[in-house]
Amino acid sequence: MLTQTAVFTRRVSDHMDPPPLVVAASDSCRDVVERLASVGASEVIVEDAHGRVAGIVTEQDVSRRIACAGRDDAPIETVMSAPVVSVSEDDYLYRAIARMRRRGLRHLPVVGERQKVVGVLRLHRAMAVAAAPMLERIERLSHEDDLEGIKATKDAQIRVALELMNDALPATEIQAFLSRINNDVYQGVVRLCLREMRESGLGEPPVEFDVVVMGSGGRKESFLRPDQDNGFVIEDYPIADHDRVDAWFIELAVRVTDALAEVGFERCHGNVMAINPVWRKTLSEWRAQTRAWMGKGEGLSLRFCDIFFDFDCVFGPGALTRSLREHVTTLAPHPHFLRELFKVDEEHGVALGLFDRLKRDPLPGPNQGKLNLKLTGTLPLVGAVRIMALRERVERTGTLERITALHERGVLGADEQDYLGGAYRHISALMLRQQLADYREGREPGNHVPVEALSKREKDMLVDGFKAIRAFRSRLRHELTAGIF
Q: Which terminus of the chain, N or C, has less C-beta within 10 A?
């Protein structure tokens, strides 16, 4: 039985119908109408010469454009509706519902690889999954590109996360949902800023570019209220055009970071944002900068690598980001660099004290006596997994994805994969539960969890998870250093 919030986790492919009737653009109207009648279809998809969706013809088109106009022998492309709004089979159902409702569509072609038609989504079937109370949430989470709509999306995000938690959805899936909405907000903000720049006479982007996010956003492991960790990867251009092109992207960066702050993304205190030229570079400059960071292998350079290496594209074609990922994946496995990077992460130990007792935060203040599950839980695991993934040339950025990939390559045994994956899931669940409780009670969501809020079983599982992380870090340290330090 589907839960009330299933619409936010189901993919279009879970609810689409089989592929509709597909015809070539050159087929005659008469032939298409006969085929429609023979199979009892209500619509037909028209493909171009490359097999991509070119148009759609519905029953209404048959009666209005063909029968009434007497165009039996004309090619079907002369009466089809085009361009066609479509949806990817991997997209989420709630997005498709919002798109159909907003555009007044009863059916939507579903496309797969290379834009090939793989099915059709019908509004009445999709709506059956979305309970009436969820429609308001869907509308809020599928904003128009204006600041008010984007703010509504950000505000609705946490309320839907609460409902997903109440439906017992795993914390890692809720994190993926939060990350997905954050990415939607980024995309809406960038589109809005680009439109405003066009309208103010600043024109189109002078070259291609990608917007990337780093940290938990790049890993798709967001908790509540992440700050801004973003940058631009810009297509290479002639040096003579630098002043003009860079000025344009500076303006975009200022507008984007300002708008993100207005809708709820706090500015990064470390200035890891596209307004900082360190994080706004052409592809060639990024390659040179990351090469220099890894070559220096000390101090601030290592900190930058630690921040940057989980980057992922949230806006743009993505080719520049993929090229940069290939570059980093090729360079990063150098043993000296990985040893030095591990030293940076070595300060992040798990919260286990003498006799494997849970180690509470000793610092005076409101969080004294609580467990900092980010600093002494997820960070030690995420950092160690990242380093091993870099060593093994794993391009994935998610922690669980990296653990799975390392197991598939034989680097992690089945038990180690199970313990580390279980530790990440458990710590994330405790953190997210606490953050949502903080939100409900009007407190600022943080990373500290009171020990008394945990059941005995939860504490036992936490200790076991910390032990697994500690053992993994010890193994990684030995493999990287062979006792050098």
A: N
Contact 437, 158 (CB under 8 A): no
- Residue 83 has a pLDDT of 85
Handedness of CA 444, 449, 455, 460 (dihedral sign): positive
Contact 211, 191 (CB under 8 A): no
**Two structure tokens written together for 85:** 């709004």
Take residue 170 and report the two structure tokens written for it: 């795993």
Domains and CATH numbers, the chain: 6-129 (3.10.580.10), 143-316 (3.30.460.10), 335-481 (1.20.120)
Write the DSSP string, 359-411: PPP-SSSTTTTSEETIIIIIHHHHHHHHHHHHHTT----SHHHHHHHHHHTTS
Distance CA 182, CA 314 (A): 9
C-alpha span between 473 and 385 (Å, rounded): 9
Q: How far apart are the first and last CA of the chain?
A: 55
Which residues are paired to 372 by β-bridges?
Answer: 448
Q: Tokens in use for 287? A: 């390659």
Q: In whole angstroms, what is the distance from residue 436 CA to residue 30 CA?
A: 59
Give per-residue pLDDT as tens, 261-316: 999 899 998 999 999 999 999 999 999 999 999 988 778 899 999 899 999 999 99
482 versus 190: the higher-pLDDT residue is 190
Q: What pLDDT does 79 receive?
A: 82
**String of DSSP letters for 186-230:** HHHHHHHHHHHHHHTT--S-SS-EEEEE-THHHHT---SS-B--E
CA 88 to chain CA mean position, Å: 16
Run of H or E including 120:
strand 117-122
Residues 268 and 305: beta-carbon distance below 8 Å: no
Neighbours of 57 (CB within 10 A): 25
Amino acid at 178: L
- The amino acid that residue 305 corresponds to is C
The contacts of residue 462 (CB under 8 Å, 6+ apart) are 358, 371, 426, 427, 430, 454
Q: Which of 32, 29, 25 is nearest to 53 (CA)?
A: 25
Question: Is-contact 362 444, C-beta < 8 A?
Answer: no
CB 350 within 8 A of CB 373: no
Interatomic CA distance for residues 148 and 154, integer angstroms: 10
One-letter identity of residue 119: G
Q: Is the C-alpha dihedral spanning 118, 176, 217, 409 positive or negative?
A: negative
* Contact yes or no for 10/90 (Cβ under 8 A): no
Give residue-wise pLDDT tens across range 377-419: 999 999 999 999 999 999 999 999 999 999 999 999 999 999 9
